[in-house]
């Protein structure tokens, strides 16, 4: 309800701006001046005057799409009054209500009809087609499905680096945009300015002043265990708008009420080993020892591209070693069959050793500050991104938990011990003020140590357990951050984001992503049919029209 109220206020403000700025223009077209203030009807009049489809008016008030269509309608209105020069069009685009007011109150209309020059009409018809193609694509992108690329190996071998996915935004109900004024097709920033090497200084693709609350429609189901889910990264420190935070894709391994634990790199939920879906290829980091150097290119050719993060030779024992970022049980078994293989050691963190990282200190020359032994000196400022959540537990990625995932309706008793676990949930995710004064907790100014959770939370992890920035670092994922689930892989290219040999992985294209099945069905024939229909529609129309005329 809050979303509808605030969005209605936003629409009313825009309507008032249009009414004030174009009051006399509407009178000159033969309408009442007050009609310029009426939402929807004001743009309906413009479309009526220029003989364009009246239903286009609905586009004017859609989030993301609205600013584009409003600009188009303003240009239509200015054209009605002869404002067609390049300078006048630019003023209409970048200073819409100011220039509309200037034209309305201080300038006589140049002409009261559209120009009839054929060449100019053809040019404007072409530009109009391009504009509405952009609008249509924006509607699909913003309201139905959105393309994502996999740039990191956190979900290998389930989702590969270089997979390009389409994500269904209606999987768990559609989350309405929270920043309605934004450039289409861009996530958070327009480009990397490189200014101060700080992404916070990059130009944003959205207007942060116009904010709308969280609102979801059509929520017929919620994420469940083993779903592959796309969500906005809760640890994003650059963007305050939830829907503009970086998109991540992980597997939902636990939901509200579950107790999660990692024992020696293996996941347990509610005390039971995780139940793997057919498409879940969990992997772990291993050091492989061999008696001879491995032919890496041959290894990639016979198996697949396997990132190696460290390699070398131990001259004392005459063995070579290779640390693989992540190997599935099947890949490890195949490597053990190589004639050079000696042994494999899984890379595991020490039990009870907390994984905590601090930011380094810098010298005046900008380099790292080092002590007498040449070691980097660290500050006391905690690097939250690379520190295990919560930061007061002796946990690491291999020995983690037990941790209970909160759910809507849970009553939390806040203590100093569990404050790192729940502080962000209470303050950031659910918008409360939490204070500790005189040995007592205060929530929104009221002394209490009890808090009732307002939404469901999830725990997301990558299948590549030893190479994944996941909920073990950034903590619970609230339902407000859920985007949707991958539908299918439409393109897969090796070597785009990694150092592997460059090739197109044809066997992965147009396959459903989130089925839970190992052998997924390919839907390339549907894609081919859609492309043929899209590009061949005009040909078939002309063909049948020609036959009809002959008859």
UniProtKB/TrEMBL annotation:
EC number, as in UniProt: 3.4.21.89
Domain of life: Bacteria
Domain Peptidase S26 intervals: 127-275, 449-490
Transmembrane stretches, start-end: 6-26, 55-77, 89-106, 126-144, 523-541
SUPFAM superfamilies: LexA/Signal peptidase
Signal sequence region: none
Top enzyme class: hydrolase
Keyword Hydrolase carried by entry: yes
Catalytically driven reaction(s): Cleavage of hydrophobic, N-terminal signal or leader sequences from secreted and periplasmic proteins
Topology term for the membrane: Single-pass type II membrane protein
Primary location recorded for the protein, binned into one broad class: membrane
Keywords: Hydrolase, Membrane, Protease, Transmembrane, Transmembrane helix
Subcellular location: Membrane
Pfam families tied to this protein: DUF5684, Peptidase_S26
Stored NCBIfam families: sigpep_I_bact
Annotated family: Belongs to the peptidase S26 family.
Designated name of the protein: Signal peptidase I
Species: Cloacibacterium rupense
């Amino acid at each position: 309800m809050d979303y509808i109220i605030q969005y209605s206020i936003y629409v009313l403000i825009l309507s008032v701006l249009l009414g004030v700025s174009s009051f006399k223009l509407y009178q000159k077209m033969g309408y009442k001046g007050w009609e310029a203030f009426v939402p929807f009807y004001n743009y309906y009049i413009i479309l009526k005057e220029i003989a364009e489809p009246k239903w286009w008016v609905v586009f004017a008030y859609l989030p993301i799409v609205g600013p584009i269509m409003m600009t188009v309608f303003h240009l239509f209105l200015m054209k009605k009054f002869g404002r067609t020069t390049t300078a006048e069009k630019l003023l209409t685009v970048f200073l819409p209500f100011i220039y509309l007011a200037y034209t309305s109150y201080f300038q006589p209309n140049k002409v009261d009809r559209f120009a009839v020059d054929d060449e100019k009409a053809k040019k404007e018809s072409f530009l109009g087609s391009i504009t509405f193609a952009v609008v249509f694509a924006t509607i699909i992108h913003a309201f139905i499905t959105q393309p994502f690329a996999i740039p990191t190996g956190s979900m290998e071998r389930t989702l590969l680096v270089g997979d390009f996915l389409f994500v269904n935004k209606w999987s768990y109900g559609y989350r309405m945009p929270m920043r309605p004024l934004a450039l289409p097709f861009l996530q958070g920033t327009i480009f990397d300015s490189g200014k101060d090497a700080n992404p916070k200084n990059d130009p944003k693709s959205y207007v942060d002043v116009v904010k709308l609350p969280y609102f979801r429609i059509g929520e017929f189901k919620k994420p469940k265990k083993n779903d592959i889910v796309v969500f906005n990264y809760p640890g994003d420190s650059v963007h305050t708008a939830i829907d503009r935070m970086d998109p991540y894709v992980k597997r939902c391994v636990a939901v509200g009420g579950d107790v999660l634990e990692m024992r020696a790199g293996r996941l347990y939920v509610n005390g039971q080993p995780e139940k793997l879906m057919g498409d879940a290829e969990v992997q772990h980091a291993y050091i492989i020892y061999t008696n001879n150097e491995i032919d890496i290119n041959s290894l990639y050719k016979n198996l697949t591209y396997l990132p190696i993060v460290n390699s070398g030779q131990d001259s004392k024992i005459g063995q070579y070693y290779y640390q693989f970022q992540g190997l599935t049980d099947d890949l490890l078994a195949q490597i053990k069959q190589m004639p050079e293989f000696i042994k494999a050691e899984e890379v595991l963190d020490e039990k009870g050793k907390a994984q905590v990282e601090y930011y380094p200190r810098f010298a005046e020359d900008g380099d790292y500050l080092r002590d007498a032994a040449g070691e980097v000196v660290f500050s006391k400022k905690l690097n939250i991104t690379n520190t295990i959540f919560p930061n007061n537990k002796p946990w690491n990625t291999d020995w983690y938990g037990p941790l209970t995932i909160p759910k809507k309706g849970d009553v939390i008793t806040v203590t100093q011990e569990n404050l790192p676990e729940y502080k962000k949930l209470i303050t950031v995710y659910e918008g409360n003020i939490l204070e500790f004064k005189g040995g007592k907790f205060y929530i929104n100014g009221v002394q209490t140590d009890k808090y009732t959770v307002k939404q469901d939370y999830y725990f997301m992890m990558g299948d590549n357990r030893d190479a994944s920035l996941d909920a073990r670092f950034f903590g619970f994922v609230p339902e407000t951050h859920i985007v949707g689930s991958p539908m299918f892989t439409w393109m897969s290219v090796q070597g785009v984001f990694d150092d592997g040999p460059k090739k197109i992985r044809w066997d992965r294209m147009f396959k459903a992503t989130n089925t839970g099945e190992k052998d997924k069905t390919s839907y390339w024939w549907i894609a081919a049919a859609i492309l043929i229909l899209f590009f061949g529609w005009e040909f078939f129309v002309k063909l049948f029209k020609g036959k009809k005329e002959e008859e």
